[in-house]
Amino acid sequence: MRKTLWPYPKVVAHRGGGALAPENTLAALRCGLAHGFHAVEFDVMLSRDRIPVLMHDEEFGRTVSGTGSVPAMSAAELAGLDAGSWFGSAFGGEPVPTYAQAVAFCREQAIWMNVELKPAAGIEAATGRVTAALTRQLFAAEIVAAGIDSGPDPRALPLFSSFSFEALIAARSGAPEIPRGLLVDAVPPDWCTRLEALAAVALHVNHETLTPDLARQVRGAGFGLFCYTVNDPARAREILSWGVDGFCTDRIDLIGADFPAGAAAK
Ligand code: G3P
Ligand code: MG
Predict the structure, then answer these.
(1) Does residue 207 carry a catalytic annotation?
(2) Which of 35, 175, 176, 216 has its CA 20 to 30 A from that of 138?
(3) Is the CB of 250 under 6 A from ligand 1?
(4) CATH number of domain containing 144
(5) 14 has catalytic annotation
């Protein structure tokens, strides 16, 4: 029987709730769920005390006002910051959640997770290592089940992804059971060597740089192919016709979890 290259959902809510909620917050996860999404991508960074938290930018100023940075603050300090007001007053006081809180919510709600390791500069390996260790602890039962059961549901475990090869290598060594995808902007010439070195299951690529030929090569080599961040239904149809397995979107209002079903023809 042919192996499924991407046993994960086809459409994934980017940064929790895409463009409809403040990114990388529990409010965003609730928003994605309210739109029918049981698959989410979010970004994970380490605080000063080495607690994985949900955050995209290392430096404050965009989603958290003021000056400062994530690696300079403890998780407790980060939890007291406002990561919601930038998006709208209805989200004022929305805290920076820990990764463990996000995992707890997703597990309760049966939401599959693409966990993007987003290391602050200089702590790439630590980000992979610490997040892997915590993930291994949180998913201990599922890891055991995957080891003894020949047909476990792959969606029971998250998928790590990262632009940082170093973070992924560290994640592989800390939690080899958690699958990995390599994130790239453009597909590099040595993509296959890199994926093999990581024992990765998928390549995650900016859809704007992908071509049908590259899509065919990646899938032909036995890897899943995931794209970010696809916000136009017509473009989503196009890349799916090239064999792309899945993609994340900010437009969870336009591109439903069951896309292309239910989407208006364009
Ligand atoms: O994981 C896909 C996508 O999230 C990568 O880019 O900058 O939105 O984290 P970014
Ligand atoms: Mg991301």
Answers:
(1) no
(2) 35
(3) no
(4) 3.20.20.190
(5) yes
